[in-house]
Amino acid sequence: MTMLPERAPGAKKLGLVIDLDTCVGCHACAVNCKEWNTGGEAGILPDYDKYGPEPDGVWFNRIHSYETDGEGGSRTVNVPRSCLHCEDALCVTVCPTGASYKRVQDGIVLVDTDKCIGCQLCSWACPYGARELDEKAGVMRKCTLCIDRIYDENLPPAEREPACVATCPSRARHFGDLADPDSKVSKLVKERGGVDLLPGLGYRPTNKYLPPRRATIPTAPVKPPAPSGKGIGTALLGLLDKALSR
Amino acid sequence: MCACRCGIKVHLENGKLRYIEGNRDHPINRGVLCGKGSAGIMTAISPARLSTPLRRTGVRGSGEFEAISWDEALRIATDRLAAIRATDPNRLALFTGRDQSQSLTGHFARMFGTINYAAHGGFCSVNMAAAGLYSVGGAFWEFGEPDWEHAQLFLLFGVAEDHDSNPIKLGLGRLKARGAKIISINPVRTGYSAIADEFVAITPGTDGLLVFALIHCLLEAGRVDTEFLVRYTNAHHLVIDAPGDAEHGLIARDAAGRELCFDRSSGALVAAQAVGTDPALLGEFALPDGRRARPAFALLAERYCGPEHAPEAVASRCGVDAATIRRIAAEIAEVAFNQPVVLDQPWTDTAGRRHATMTGRPVAMHAMRGVSAHSNGFHTCRAIHVLQMLLGAIDTPGSWRYKSPYPKPIPGGPPPGKPGTPGGPLDAPPLGFPRGPEDLLVDEAGEPLRLDRAFSWEAPIAIHGLMHMAIARAYEAGPEAIDTLFLFMSNMAWNSAMNPGETTRMLSERDAQGGYRIPFVIVADAFASETVAYADLVLPDTTYLERYDCISLLDRPIGSAEGPADAIRIPVLRPDRDVRPFQDVLIELAGRLRLADFADERGAPLYSSYADYMVRHERRPGVGPLAGFRGEDGRGIGKGAPNPRQLERYVENGSFWRHELPHEQLYFKHANRAYLTGAKAMGLIDDDAQIVLQLYCEPLQRFRLAAEGHGLRRPPLRLRERIMRFFDPLPIWYVPLEEAMTDQVRFPLHAITQRPMAMYHSWGSHNAWLRQVLPENRIYLHRDLAAQLGVRDEDWVWVRSRNGSIRCQARTMDGVNRDTVWTWNAIGKRAGAWALKHDAPEFRRGFLLNHVISEYLPKRDDEVQHSNSDPVTGQAAWFDLSVSIEPCGPETHHETSPRPAANPLRVRWAAENS
Asked: Do B169 and A214 count as a contact with CB atoms less than 8 A apart?
């Protein structure tokens, strides 16, 4: 049993805002995440059976495509899934060793692999499937929100964002402080009606998803055509009658 | 790496790859990077990398080779090619894949003197390139892009989601951020279609009909931009109406060769390009010689106003209801004409008129596959360009725009090169732009000169060649016609073949004396693709991180509407194998063969490497592979003397060069005086005259007149009807050829492929990360169809066509046209290839749809057997496929079929030889 920290007044809530209206499901975020983190401070994300019958490995982020029926009929939604850095993170409270913890200063949920015994209680507790077992090291792996990028003062300020955000080709991923109502991400959530994933479970995820939209172009009702439909119509003849200037 | 040509930054740690990220300054990707780019680390360490030159020891296809030295490999290649060149250079056929070296490989072929050269475009997208270059002097994808910042309505007619992928994704993101509407017209709802605001599940091969219906509605409502038409297109040009006459259907010209129009203000025939006239768009007029003539627009209006083009007439065939078509037409008209984009930017047109603003029609379009891969794709793509012209939505704010260095004078370049002096170079590059029968590569009987029959009466405007026919025709023609098939980076025995089973048989077949029907095959590739096993000589290439590359304006550039750009890649890793960059090898080969432009008069090689060639080669005086930092001081833009420090300057600039056009040059480039003058000065175009958009495509009529019996060069009798039918100067629609010849009761379903965004061609499956994303594929079908057939998710089914059967697993979905099945492209691999283990899912559950596609149309008694191609461009028509689906019985073996025997590479090394 591990305790969640008291949230300090003014503390940040760093997280992602993922725009499902714009995500094309291209897997760029997932692969770049793997690339960055596999050599980063988080340690490696192992691959199993790289060239064999069951290629698999650890990923911090996976993409799922669903068909849903909603207003306006069926549509396909691409949903990137990674740690949501919940405020009431059950993955932390179930941890028997204190390996799983939530940072006071920014709310990022991390695993201290020195303490992790790989019991997988946290992955059972997480309804989002955000934690994966590193079968080689026997410890749990998960999204760090690229803690080794976002605080790295050697990087130019523009690059101090998670790899998945930096690489997203349709710019469907946004990073920022969701505790700050004036941050870009908080405004996006407000404007676009950002939602929690599985809110009924009560884990209060920090990451938000922006729902798909449908842009429309209002036009006057289209009249059915006159039955004649032969030859060039009067509307076109009228237009062609006007003088032109080449 | 891939055709997106994104800029990357590669970080090394202790000499090893640590991280690859998008270059934030790069004009193509502006910092973003796709899954493929991010997985580059795993490509660089792939076990499928070739490691040494190889000579075949077993039978072809067995995979048995011996390692040889580069000296020996180059000696074998040089001896062979020198002998060919001394007799008949055309007996070398050089076909390359989706690479970035076509400017070099094409130049090699030209200097070698063979007309038998092509790259991958004939398989991929030549319909888009040809239709665009013959209509508007640019093209979708490669030579144009939507105005992402101003478009309010975006129509996406099919797409290959791994092509131009980061720029399109960035653009879609911008459209979404601005609340613009995206309509995707596609049988399948994946990727980009999934985020479209409206998904139109069109029946494959009917896009042209849908576009005609949209044009019909716009004409019916009088919603076309007539001023744009007369100023920028040939809509008002008079077309001679004299059936039977040798000039019937051509544009009427005066004695000076100027096109004519009828000026309503003076009541006289005047030069169509004269300024200040009031050109007639309807009517019939007498020419001075008494013949009648009508404005091109009148022909167009008459055709598309016809009731057969009404939405109600096409709805059921397109699978789109008439009300939807009418509403989309209304939305197009609303945005184009009621919501114009007005930029406060003065500019001057080629007539000398000064405009206070740039006013545009914010309806943008993009089209690619499926349109490209149907046998009616050329005309369908032309139809889309005609729709754009009618709306005045070409290179205006908010519409589709040219990527610099386009537009180019129509049709885009010189005719295809012809053999010059024996043993000498061709008189022009081997791929070119025929303007009429006189430019075809045919013999006196009108029969093809080229191996793949490009630029013959079977495919007159095959501007990218017919790669899909190269092996079949070489096999057919026999050793007298073709000695050596030289393939670079092209998996032509597998996913770049229609019907790989037949293709590999042709590569393997021997005559009674034991000689191969295709005598010698050289394969240059970085990886152990399925094709490598069929080589006699393997020239191993490096990976993209181990060599110089040049993304050249002479090739497939990375310019945007904001200006021309090019780039280099520099090696960041030293090869740990006995491999060499293919470009270096080709340049060395050209030097050893003493080809002009690669060797001096005494036969000494001119270039030491590709890097050296990139800097010092001049295609024309002052114009070389790289346009930036030219001249001895490095200040030259586009033109200038070679600069010995050019590569350093590129590296200092992030390995790319970009010239930003002044704002007054950003739109109306086809008629923008400042732009055209500047483009000429930069060497992008040779002529700065207005580029008149071709609503009416006159060159097509020239071929048709020949078929009617006019002129000295006429098609063979058997092809005359075909030329008359398909060479209509206004877009037409016809049932895709294979579909029309296939029993639609037995094979009632369309079958197509889609590109997975995390893969590029076949090159993702040996990447340990990408194959975790998609290691096997399924055949997808609509839930209603599946219910009718009794097929559930993961059931094993037979996909049958007239060409054969595939056994695979099914998956059901809603977002697909009811009569269409589809699968991911190039996931299925041949056992043994790509260094994957024998039980990899790519072999056991992955499959290629190619196995049930034929490179030939069905043979009919009274006709020659045609290739399965667009009759205008020769584009491989692999989306025309008709199939049936039936569930497999319960006793089914749970593996995909066909499954050719495994043939992994088995290399005997020199030490083992001794």
From this structure: no
Contact A245 B227 (CB under 8 A): yes
CB B870 within 8 A of CB B17: no
Under a CB-based contact definition with an 8 Å cutoff, are residues B8 and B21 in contact? yes
CA gap A78, A25 in Å, rounded: 5
Contacts across the A-B interface (CB distance below 8 Å): 246
Residues of B in Cβ contact (< 8 Å) with A74: 814-815
User: So where are chain B's domains?
Assistant: 54-123+419-540, 140-405, 565-658, 737-887
pLDDT score at B39 = 95
Domain ranges of chain A: 14-210
The partner residue sitting opposite A169, judged by closest CB among B166, B224, B815, is B166
CATH number among 3.40.50.720, 3.30.70.20, 3.30.750.24, 1.10.443.10, domain A14-210: 3.30.70.20
Alpha helices in A18-107 (DSSP H): 28-38, 90-93
- Identify the closest residue of chain A to B846 by CA–CA distance: A53
* The predicted structure's pLDDT at residue A224: 63
B401-451 per-position pLDDT tens digit? 999 999 999 998 999 999 877 778 999 999 999 999 999 999 999 999 999
Interface touch A239/B305, C-beta < 8 Å: no
Q: What is the pLDDT, as a whole number, of residue A208?
A: 98
Closest chain B residue to the Cα of A215, Cα to Cα:
B181
pTM, 2 dp: 0.97
- ipTM comes to 0.96
Its CATH architecture, for the domain B54-123+419-540, is 3-Layer(aba) Sandwich (3.40)
Other residues' Cβ atoms within 10 Å of the Cβ of residue B814:
16
Tell me the shortest Cα–Cα distance from B282 to chain A, in angstroms: 8
The residue assigned the tokens 């080629």 is B350
Residue A231 has a pLDDT of 77
Using CA coordinates, name the residue in chain A closest to B197: A214
- B737-887 carries CATH number 2.40.40.20: yes
CB contact under 8 Å between B281 and A240, yes or no, is yes
Q: Measure A165 CA to nearest chain B CA, in Å.
A: 9
Average per-residue pLDDT for chain B: 95
B14 burial (CB, 10 Å; 0-12 / 13-18 / 19+) is exposed
Q: Output the CATH code of domain B140-405.
A: 3.40.228.10
Residues of chain A with pLDDT under 50: none
Cα A214 to chain center, whole Å? 20
Contact A26 B34 (CB under 8 A): yes
pLDDT tens per residue, range B610-644:
999 999 999 999 999 999 999 999 999 999 999 99
